[in-house]
Design goal:
This protein is of the alpha+beta class. The chain has a single domain, classed as Alpha-Beta Plaits (2-Layer Sandwich). The protein has 6 helices and 9 strands, in the order βαββαββαββααββα. The strands form 4 sheets. A 3-stranded antiparallel beta sheet has the order 8-1-9. A two-stranded antiparallel sheet has the order 2-3. Strands 4-5 form a two-stranded antiparallel sheet. Strand 4 (75-77) and strand 5 form a beta hairpin. The protein is globular.
């Protein structure tokens, strides 16, 4: 089974948030605080141009700690590696939120369930790209099979790389949150 991964070209992302908006629209999320796809601004205080933007969603870990933490098996991992929430099974206990090392899962107070990026697996199953990728105005997001990722250093990096873990932890510290 092929495994899809999300890549981002950090040089092309301008922080326009079109991926965030597309994700929220696809999932029908109206609550402002729920962001399965997040774009972080890294560096560049004020209007300085030395900032860059870091799109971040679920890393679809292997193994996925959220899947093991879920007491009702609502958090599932498909054969292709996509991690998703089976909404009818979710009891909103938040065990998956605690287990996720990247803060990629959010509690939705409107539904009393959890929300996360699932690579728009229903779209993917129909041969379409995830909504965030298809709506990216600078084409900085890529959705490819793991086997297609070139071995040499590439401008587009996997969203689950160590670089992202370090940058995400740095961003959380900048925002005054515990890592």
């Amino acid at each position: 089974m092929k495994r899809p991964v999300m890549l981002v070209d950090l040089d092309r992302c301008i922080g326009c948030l079109s991926c965030e908006v597309a994700c929220k629209q696809e999932k029908g999320l109206e609550n402002f605080g729920i962001r399965p796809m997040k774009v972080f601004r890294v560096g560049g205080l004020g209007d300085r141009a030395d900032a860059f933007f870091l799109p971040m969603n679920c890393f679809h870990c292997d193994p996925a700690p959220c899947v093991y933490a879920c007491p009702t098996s609502a958090m599932r991992k498909r054969e292709d590696g996509i991690v998703y929430v089976e909404e009818l099974r979710c009891i909103g206990c938040k065990a998956c939120i605690v287990a996720c090392p990247y803060g990629a899962i959010a509690f939705n107070p409107d539904t009393m369930k959890v929300e996360k990026c699932d690579y728009c697996y229903r779209r993917v199953d129909r041969g379409l790209l995830p909504s965030c990728v298809s709506k990216c105005v600078t084409n900085c997001l890529y959705f490819v099979e793991l086997e297609e990722v070139p071995r040499e250093r590439h401008r587009a990096r996997r969203l689950d790389s160590e670089l992202y873990r370090e940058l995400f932890c740095w961003q959380l510290k900048e925002e005054g949150l515990q890592v």
